[in-house]
Backbone:
């Protein structure tokens, strides 16, 4: 998700109320954090085996087609017009959907099947650090600072720590596989790069409309790829259908709320809540998947990652004094 035109904080007094901002930002973080146990729970409810990649693509595809449709209906009800884009704009939206949704979630859904929700919650946070590093080379006014470099170092150190375990005889070992933890990190890198691309093309497009279209395109590509390669969904029950509907709603609702908060508030004030996504992801994975978090490496890794996110997203004092009215860039997430 990316920028919309800047707005004065007086345009919407409710959405600039600090208590409201705090509660809505936390709601978004809870929704995004809940996606980790929801996806793994979906694999169980729909009888999708770890090696059944085609069915994972079908599962992801239906989620994002539904999420995109919800956002488009919301945009239309809000008075936006569907269409009217140039051929070039349609091509850009399609490319964004194929990268930010299709490619990213191929890696993410496969990777999550081969690692835990707790570890995935922490490692996905590397997307924030990848965004900071990529922005340094793309935007002349978004260079690396000492705080950003320190934040990135702390964040990647946290990712290293979470993958350390005990081997034979209690000796330290590095618990990391390419198809598991590696794919989750690749997904975070793809999301970071695609989000920067989305930031550029969304200058003249309503962010909700753009996101709805790219989710629809990306989801359709996931469905096509999954069905062509033999994927399917079985085990439809009220519980599994409700979970799929929840996943579609969480994507569309969180994106909509987050973009509105960014539109009417300082970017730094909203994005500072990003560190809560891995916190809720870890907590909810432990609660619903019964994954253990009572290990020193999880506590240390989570602390390092959250500290790192806070450092790279905090705004210099001189910029904070400028107040609201900035261009906005929404968080990318699961």
Residues:
């Amino acid at each position: 998700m990316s920028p919309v035109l800047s707005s004065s904080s007086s345009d919407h007094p409710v959405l600039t109320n600090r208590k409201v901002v705090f509660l809505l930002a936390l709601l978004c973080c809870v929704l995004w954090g809940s996606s980790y146990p929801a996806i793994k729970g979906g694999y169980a409810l729909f009888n999708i085996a770890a090696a059944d990649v085609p069915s994972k693509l079908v599962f992801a595809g239906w989620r994002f087609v539904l999420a995109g449709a919800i956002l488009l209906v919301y945009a239309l009800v809000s008075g936006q017009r569907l269409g009217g884009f140039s051929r070039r704009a349609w091509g850009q939206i399609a490319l964004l959907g194929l990268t930010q949704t299709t490619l990213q979630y191929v890696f993410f859904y496969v990777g999550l099947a081969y690692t835990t929700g707790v570890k995935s919650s922490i490692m996905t946070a590397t997307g924030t650090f990848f965004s900071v590093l990529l922005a340094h080379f793309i935007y002349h006014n978004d260079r690396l600072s000492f705080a950003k470099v320190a934040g990135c170092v702390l964040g990647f150190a946290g990712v290293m720590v979470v993958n350390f375990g005990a081997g034979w005889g209690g000796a330290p070992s590095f618990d990391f596989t390419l198809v598991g933890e590696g794919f989750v990190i690749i997904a975070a890198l793809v999301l970071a790069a695609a989000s920067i691309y989305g930031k550029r093309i969304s200058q003249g497009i309503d962010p909700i409309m753009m996101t709805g279209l790219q989710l629809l395109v990306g989801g359709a590509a996931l469905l096509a790829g999954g069905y062509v390669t033999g994927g399917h969904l079985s085990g439809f029950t009220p519980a599994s259908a409700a979970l799929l509907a929840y996943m579609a709603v969480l994507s569309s609702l969180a994106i909509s709320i987050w973009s509105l908060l960014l539109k009417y508030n300082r970017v730094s004030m909203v994005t500072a809540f990003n560190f809560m996504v891995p916190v809720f992801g870890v907590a909810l994975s432990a609660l619903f998947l019964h994954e253990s978090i009572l290990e020193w490496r999880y506590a240390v890794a989570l602390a390092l990652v959250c500290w790192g996110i806070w450092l790279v997203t905090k705004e210099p004092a001189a910029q904070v004094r400028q107040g609201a009215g900035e261009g906005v860039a929404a968080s990318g997430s699961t």
